[in-house]
Write a structure and sequence with these properties.
The chain is of the alpha/beta class. It is about 15% helix and about 35% strand. It is built from two helices and eight strands.
Length: about 130
């Protein structure tokens, strides 16, 4: 059975601040993608890529007039080798730890954080 999730978007109000937060917490590079539109709305887009061959879960940070960030929307889980590593960088990157590391038994560990844009995301690791 194929995985039906193939892309996600995290909305931002301060695009550069959000890029800095995610690249710092997850120690990853985001790639700016120029977007062409027939509309007058400015759109900024930067992608997360799961691997060099672009397989797996992929998504983007997005700044667009029609969509605003915030708590209570879709919850995205970010995979982690050791959840303590990402948690140690959250507050220094301008985010907030909402629920610290929680042992979920056979499902590993989870934590709930807020990014600099007010979006809530979940971390999940085996450690």
């Amino acid at each position: 059975m194929r995985n039906v999730i193939n892309w996600f978007e995290i909305y931002t109000t301060d695009f550069d601040r959000a890029k800095k937060f995610y690249s710092t917490v997850f120690n990853c590079k985001l790639t700016d993608v120029p977007m062409k539109s027939d509309r007058h709305t400015q759109m900024q887009y930067a992608t997360f890529l799961d691997s060099e061959d672009k397989s797996g879960f992929n998504g983007a940070l997005v700044k667009i007039e029609e969509a605003k960030p915030g708590m209570g929307g879709t919850l995205i889980y970010f995979a982690s080798e050791d959840i303590n590593e990402e948690l140690s960088r959250v507050e220094a990157a301008g985010g907030k730890i909402i629920r610290p590391k929680l042992d979920t038994g056979a499902f590993g560990f989870i934590a709930l954080i807020a990014d600099t844009e007010g979006n809530m995301i979940r971390l999940r690791s085996a450690l």
